Amino acid sequence: MSVQRTRARRIAAFTGMLATIAGLVALRTATTPPPTQALDSPGLAAQAGTNRTAAGSHSAQRSPASAGPPPRNRVVVGKAYDVSYGVVQVKVTIKNARITDIKPLSLPQGGRSSDISRCAAPQLRREALSAQSAHIDSVSGASYTSAGYARSLQSALDQSRR
Amino acid sequence: MTQVDVIATMGTEVSVDVRTTASREVLGTAIEAVTARLQGIDETFSPWRASSWVSRLISGSVLTTDCPLEVQHVVEVSMLLMDVTDGFFSPFWRGRLYDDPGPDPTGLVKGWAAQQASDLLVAHGLVDHVVNAAGDLVVSGQSTPGDPASMWRIGISDPQRAGAVAGFVELDQTASRWAVATSGTAELGIHVSDPHTGRFPGDIASATAVTRLDGTDEGAAVADACATALVAAGQGAHSLLERLTERGLDTILIDRKGCVRDPRGLLTRELLTVATRSL
Known about the structure:
The complex is a heterodimer. By secondary structure, chain A is an alpha+beta fold. In chain A, 46% of the residues lie in helices and 17% in strands. In chain A, a hairpin with a 2-residue loop joins strand 3 and strand 4. The longest helix of chain A has 24 residues, at 111-134. Chain B is globular and about 50 Å long. The chains are: A alpha+beta, B alpha+beta.
């Protein structure tokens, strides 16, 4: 088999390649913004094209009497997506261009999916909100229901721009 | 600007987040090309489609040499990674569990496919992007185009809290592209077997591998296979990690008790506070 013949040569090349991977990430341990800064910074909502400047003032959100534009409250329902185990759909509340709440309207039911959904729903909500505050670009390791969840969330964000 | 497209394929979903500013036409054409490529990969490599080349390879009804060159190549890469990982990643894992005679390289196809999708986006001039194939991802270029200091911040799933992140890694501009792959129990439970024994070790809840893709064709496949191998190795994961680290691979392990092994200090374990102030 040609696979067998070329194998030793390729292993040598491969080991060399792995060796060049050395010295990887220029590590930045001190770049994490403090929580208040993270809250004020553009996260998912701003990336999705909503108004960044409106996100700045938390005091305006807490006290309607203070100066500045009135809070803009929108509830957007994402499209329902079939993720092969079932249907995923979320409802997103956006206030002053920030995601303030995410509620699942539909998560997969039945069998093992049902068990996963029961414990996953509140935590998925936490992840989306956390990802917003920490500016996470993408998540490694999530799959299946999370992908459908992210998709429905994204469709809600897309609608909120219109 | 950012445009995220989600492509339902390979039994899961692949999200394509393009940061490069481009016309709707260019983006549309590129996403169409990526979708067609991923569907083609699924048709060829899916072990769930009886008619796919890989299904026929697994059952022994065709030999590797009968397959298209691309399948031969991926099988060859999977054989190499079997050697690199001391057999803890193996295309022959099915033999132990199901007595299937032929090789199954699909353990690394998700990562490999993410890199194929990224290649296509680069070819369409969309160099700044992240492709996330259900958790195995490739990042390319700048997260904020025009800002050479911008880093990609990639969350790592927390195996103890489904849907939450354990922390994040930051990928800088010292490589034009990076691959990050995580394998473990976060979403699917214990589902990776040790190819040597056929047992399912539960010692490692999550293994992440990070590779830079400069000058390598298959760096994302390497990351995917090595992450899987570390989970399959169970109690042997720590010694495997040391051997992979010597070869230049960067890895993060989280065991079932939540203890983190992070030889290069890649993972920032910030307390991810929920943005509840405006709730």
